[in-house]
């Protein structure tokens, strides 16, 4: 099987500067609003662009907007870059920004939270727009770095005015951005070929003639192809292959800390769980049950045995490096199975209970193995978990689709604003489809006290007071066990020694930084 796979790669000979890379799964959609998922957003950002982008060191820099200024507490004025065109040759203007604003807020968008504070967009002229916010929003430029601009004319002509994560939309497998690369070939789940966009407005730093991406689910096959020289880079590196790659003379590991926190979530919205033997009651609404689950899980064992040391245990939903993180709060509740059993008994579940659990198999480092470890640990305190582990496309379709049909799940989150408010608004705030609040609050957690705190953070413009409010909100979420934080995984890529590239701490892969020797 492996030999056949390698021969398949050989069947596609590369030109002098064809960059070949692989991940464990495909980018599920070319629609940049289809899913709030790092790999999809990162992949699509090579084709589409935001108004303000992140540099490799994650600082803000101009993209389709060249200037931005807060003209009053609720207004940001932005000057758009002149002379920019989409890949089909049509000019980029304020009309496309206004269209993109309406599209990102439309049903089916996973990025509505990016503009949750924005009440309206005003067109001043063809290259000037104003964002009017409902409350002062001092971090709006940080919040919109993942919101890519789309062509109004192209979307309207292809009936793609509304975002969709399904294959029913033309934008799912076709693209028309302003970015450094454009789609030459798209075979979903098999192969995507990109070529440089000759109309790109920026100075090229890469030296690539062609980019060939392949989703390869088999970790051994990915590593073997890299070491055999059939791939130039692999984005997802199996932990058990790191030593072998490190010993290689033709490839190298590229490793650094990640801003993403891996955590466990509960369905706290329903009166009765969908996947449980308990009737007429939802155990996860009881704080004692949530704490029991927390204390039954041995994160140190997960770190050392499952993650092989490539993880940092977490007690907060944000990582070091995120504005609002406080190291004095980052101490986990002790692992204590006896205390967990006592809490379950006190809550009326002395005999334990059954629950389903959803887990991806190819989204986070060792995700399925983490879930299997959690299942085994919970079994020791009487919780019987039926694990459903699926490829990421099926997993996200289940937990984020209509009805949010999950009871207990594993997920990860890295705030693209590098500010804790992003985590609070998306994961913790009470879900509100009209405003986009709680967009990723899949379990329906709701705490009016936290909602009030989040509202105060959103309105606070003084940096010191704002940081204090963020700390207070993160502490309340921790104490209430809104979720169970597990760890921050390390970013581990691997590449041929002939490849130069940048590895940002948000795990985004910028093809514009790649050079082949």
CATH class of the largest domain: Alpha Beta
Overall pLDDT metric: 93
Count of helical regions:
15
Amino- and carboxy-terminal Cα gap: 31 Å
Number of β-strand runs: 20
Major sheet, described briefly? 10 strands, mixed
CATH superfamily of the largest domain: Dipeptide-binding Protein, Domain 3
Radius of gyration: 23 Å
Secondary structure class reads alpha+beta
Strand content range: 15-25%
Shape type: globular
Q: Architecture of the largest domain in CATH?
A: Roll
Return residue spans where pLDDT drops below 50 for at least 5 consecutive residues. 3-7
Write up this protein.
With 517 residues, the protein is α+β, with helices and mostly antiparallel strands. The protein has three domains: 116 residues, Periplasmic binding protein-like II (D-Maltodextrin-Binding Protein, domain 2, 3-Layer(aba) Sandwich), CATH 3.40.190.10; 140 residues, Alpha-Beta Complex (Dipeptide-binding Protein, domain 1); 230 residues, Dipeptide-binding Protein, Domain 3 (Dipeptide-binding Protein, domain 3). It contains 15 helices and 20 strands. The strands form five sheets. Strands 1, 8, 9, 10, 11, 12, 13, 14, 17 and 18 form a ten-stranded mixed beta sheet that branches. It has a four-stranded antiparallel beta sheet with strand order 4-5-7-6, covered by helices on one side. A two-stranded antiparallel sheet has the order 2-3. Helix 11 links the parallel strand 15 and strand 16. Helix 1 packs across helix 6 and helix 8 runs antiparallel to helix 10. The N terminus is likely disordered.
